[in-house]
Write a structure and sequence with these properties.
The structure holds two protein chains of two kinds.
Chain A lengths: L24 E2 L6 E4 L9 E2 L6 E2 L4 E4 L8 E2 L4 E11 L3 E10 L7 H5 L22 H10 L12 H4 L10 E6 L8 H8 L1 H15 L4 E7 L3 H13 L4 E6 L8 H9 L14 E5 H13 L5 E7 L7 E6 L4 H7 L7 E6 L6 E2 L13 E6 L16 H5 L6 H9 L3 H6 L10 H5 L6 H13 L7
Chain B lengths: L32 H23 L4 H21 L10 H11 L7 H13 L15 H12 L1 H4 L3 H7 L7 H7 L11 H6 L11 H13 L5 H20 L6 H6 L3 H8 L10 H21 L6 H18 L10
Helix pairs in contact in B: 1-3, 1-10, 2-3, 2-4, 3-4, 3-5, 4-5, 5-15, 10-13, 11-13, 11-14, 14-15
Classes of the chains: A alpha/beta, B mainly alpha.
Chain lengths: ~450, ~325
């Protein structure tokens, strides 16, 4: 059978060998953590605690502020030191609670005499639900309560994604195990180390979406071991989950590309996957859902890959949410002398960090320390009109043309050529021999098109 | 904001002071404009080697003249316009080399240099430099030479003296102006492949050109769509007329004159060819059609140059007509 894929795309060097054989390792809790109120797409959560409060692991620190929002829980037990504006990934600052892990102060003697329960640092759990009897609405409510967000990159609140409007029936839920970003091996390790739990998560998501949903998981064929392990786990549980073996090509893990490859449907421009009856969830999200339902856990750690030739000991780590990037890099032996860039996420779509104090958040999937050896610095020339960007674009845009229009500030023309369909995957800029910063121009163009007056859009 | 925890602050190489802040993607395929230009130059070497073998080292004189004219003009214009130096990107060198390959073996190096000046000056610089030109610069240079030095541009005596005991013109010249009954016998396909015939420096050996084409396609520099569509078009249109009793066999069309060289090295020029594969097919078929028409019904024995230049002019139109449908959109 020919492998499933999509038109366009590129083949960046994978570099997965740096970490693919390294088992997940738990990084110790650092001396201080920084918990942003906005770790998701949508409105930041509103803080419920104040400076000086003692908070327990799993306690709600901040409540969801609206439908498209998510609550934030305390990753550790300890004392709230302050509420600050601190650096976050993506070049801005945001409100964050600084929490110092530690034991609670002992009760004063008179309270003890009154028979009050001594304070504890034990984690707070939500009441566990049964895998076989939890109902769809219960599962969605649990996902909302636990503040689970998509781990594929956008950090969209998962409960919203599990509640499609009634006029958009869903018949396919596909787990994204493509992990097409180079370097990253987090999803791969999760599939190898927790396949049974992932299968449980898939079944729970399926139940949340209704009776008629087909279940599947898409995995690129550069991960034969993950494909084998997942197949075994599915057979063991006699679950009706289809494994889609996908061609290794970037961006195979883009939602539209994954849906196209797996079930042959094309999401129209500007529409969400539910338009074609599909919901996509990341491997890590499935696990978070499973842990929240069956164990009553809330997200307190993020599983991520630390890699790149600029870090001394690349690892796959489970890191306490709120840990500064600096601490994570230090835990991996520190940076090499020729390290030049720290990227949060994958090398194709990740953000270059401007401050190493920015914390790990719920959806952080990777921290890359890239060295001069990997960053062949580009001399930019004029566009040669070679068309390689158009060949690479998975959504059939003409990136060189759009970049030129953005350069000329011709926003209406860029809109008419479909600039808003661009998902910033970076395949065009990766392949461009003139080394034009195409994604930068495309982002600029998209931002300005969004700002055009309504009627002109 | 300082990190009050103070842990892991010993990171001499990566600190806020020297972090690179750029947009994604953070990795690159590794190609550059210069790499492409020099690889195309390398792909032309088999043609040049065969030319030296058949016509003698003298052919290097017009080739070097054209390169000197092109590179010199690029340098002077960059200096005059206070623009950054672009010699190292190899594009001016390549334009000069391409021009040098499409003049007769005994062509004057001084005239070839003049052609190089026009190729860069009028073919490229006036449009705004690399990436902005409408027409293939080397062909602009050649069109200038053809108009200015028609005698020199059709003087095949050097070539013919070296390769042919019986003095005669190029195969296409024979076809147009000679006695058609005379040539097919000893102008066999083998001679067209090997290149021991009259013709421009780089154009006579089909085998050497095809080798260059294989290099360009294998390294994914050139679009095979343009090459294949132009050859398919030549076979189709040449074949149709041949069946109707007009003109030579389609194979002769493809292997003679500048058809192959044009398909592999001229029509595939990025800047002056269409962006999309569909557009490239229209472009290639169009060039082939125009070439056959000029050869069979025009006043000139050969028409590849004008065919490509005319098709170059149509590229913006072709690009507009073949804009790809956005993913998932209805046509």
């Amino acid at each position: 059978m020919p492998l499933r894929s999509f038109r366009g795309g590129v083949h960046p060097p994978e570099h997965k060998e740096l970490t693919e054989h390294k088992a997940l390792e738990l990084m110790p809790v650092p001396a201080e953590i920084f918990v942003p109120m906005g770790q998701h797409l949508g409105k930041p959560a509103s803080p419920l605690v104040k400076k000086g409060d003692y908070v327990r692991q799993g306690q709600v620190l901040a409540a969801a502020a609206g439908f498209i929002s998510a609550p934030v829980h305390s990753p550790v037990s300890g004392k709230v030191v302050k509420l600050v504006k601190g650096p976050v990934v993506g070049g801005t600052t945001a409100d964050m609670l600084v929490v110092q892990p530690g034991e609670p102060d002992p009760l004063p003697a008179d309270k003890v005499a009154e028979g009050a329960a001594p304070p504890t640092s034990a984690p707070l759990l939500l009441p566990p639900l049964d895998l076989n009897t939890a109902t769809g609405p219960e599962i969605i409510e649990r996902v909302r309560e636990a503040g689970i967000v998509g781990q594929g990159g956008a950090a969209f609140p998962t409960a919203v994604k599990l509640s499609p409007p009634a006029d958009k029936p869903i018949d396919w839920m596909i787990i994204n195990g493509a992990e097409c970003e180079p370097y990253l091996t987090r999803d791969y390790r999760l599939m190898l180390e927790r396949p049974d739990d992932i299968v449980e998560g898939i079944l729970l998501i399926g139940r949340a979406l209704g009776e008629n949903v087909n279940l599947g998981i898409g995995i690129e064929n550069n991960k034969p071991e993950a494909i084998r392990v997942m197949r075994e786990a599915i057979v063991k549980r006699q679950a009706a989950i289809k494994v889609f073996e996908l061609k290794t090509k970037y961006p195979q893990g883009g939602e539209k590309m994954l849906i196209d490859a797996a079930v042959g449907r094309k999401v129209p421009p500007g529409a969400l996957p539910m338009e074609v009856g599909c919901v996509i969830q990341n491997v890590g999200t499935a696990l978070a859902i499973r842990d929240a339902v069956i164990l009553g856990e809330v997200p307190r750690t993020a599983v991520l890959t630390v890699s790149g030739l600029g870090v001394k000991e690349p690892k796959n780590l489970q890191v306490t949410i709120g840990t500064p990037l600096r601490d994570v890099i230090a835990f991996c032996g520190g940076a090499t002398a020729d390290a030049r860039r720290v990227v949060v996420g994958g090398p194709m779509m990740g953000f270059a960090a401007y401050s190493l104090d920015a914390p790990v958040v719920k959806a952080t999937s990777g921290i890359l320390v890239l060295s001069e050896r990997e960053l062949k610095e580009p001399p930019e020339t004029t566009c040669l009109n070679c068309g390689k960007c158009a060949e690479a674009c998975p959504v059939n845009l003409l990136p060189s043309r759009l970049a030129r229009l953005a350069e000329l500030q011709r926003w209406e023309a860029a809109r008419d050529l479909g600039i808003e369909v661009c998902m910033e995957c970076g395949a065009c800029a990766f392949t461009c021999p003139a080394r034009k910063p195409l994604v930068q121009y495309l982002r600029l163009g998209k931002k300005n098109v969004r700002n055009l007056p309504r009627k002109e859009r | 904001m300082a990190n009050p925890s103070g842990t892991g602050s010993e990171l001499p190489a990566v600190s806020e002071g020297n972090l690179h802040l750029v947009t994604s993607p953070h990795v690159h395929f590794g190609w550059s404009t210069a790499r492409i230009m020099w690889l195309v130059t390398a792909a032309l070497l088999p043609c040049l080697a065969v030319a030296v073998y058949h016509f003698g080292p003298g052919v290097l004189a017009p080739v070097c003249g054209a390169i000197a004219g092109a590179v010199g003009t690029e340098w002077v214009l960059n200096r005059a316009g206070r623009r950054p130096d672009t010699i190292a990107d190899g594009s001016a060198f390549l334009t000069g080399l391409l021009l040098g390959m499409i003049v007769p073996p005994g062509f004057s190096p001084v005239h070839a240099a003049l052609g190089g000046v026009v190729a860069i000056g009028l073919g490229k610089a006036v449009f705004g430099g690399l990436g902005h030109n409408t027409f293939n610069p080397a062909l602009v240079g050649r069109a200038f030479l053809q108009a200015s030095f028609p005698a020199g541009m059709t003087d095949w005596s050097t070539a013919v003296a070296r390769v042919d005991a019986v003095s005669r013109a190029t195969p296409l010249g024979l076809l147009k102006f000679g006695d058609p009954s005379q040539f097919p016998a000893d102008l066999a396909t083998e001679r067209l492949l090997a290149g021991n015939i009259g013709g421009c420096i780089g154009e006579t050996s089909a085998a050497a050109i095809l080798l260059g084409g294989v290099i360009l396609v294998a390294t994914r520099i050139a679009s095979w769509h343009i090459i294949v569509s132009m050859l398919a078009g030549g076979a189709l249109f040449g074949g149709l007329f041949h069946l109707a009793g007009v003109g030579p066999s389609p194979l002769f069309h493809l292997l003679s004159g500048g058809f192959l060289f044009g398909a592999v090295f001229m029509a595939t020029d990025y800047v002056s060819s269409p962006l999309t594969h569909r557009g490239q097919w229209i472009f290639g078929l169009g060039i082939a059609f125009l070439t056959i028409m000029i050869r069979l019904f025009g006043g000139l024995p050969e028409g590849v140059m004008y065919a490509i230049l005319l098709a170059n002019a149509a590229v913006p139109l072709i690009n507009r007509a073949t804009r790809p449908t956005i993913y998932g959109a209805k046509r």
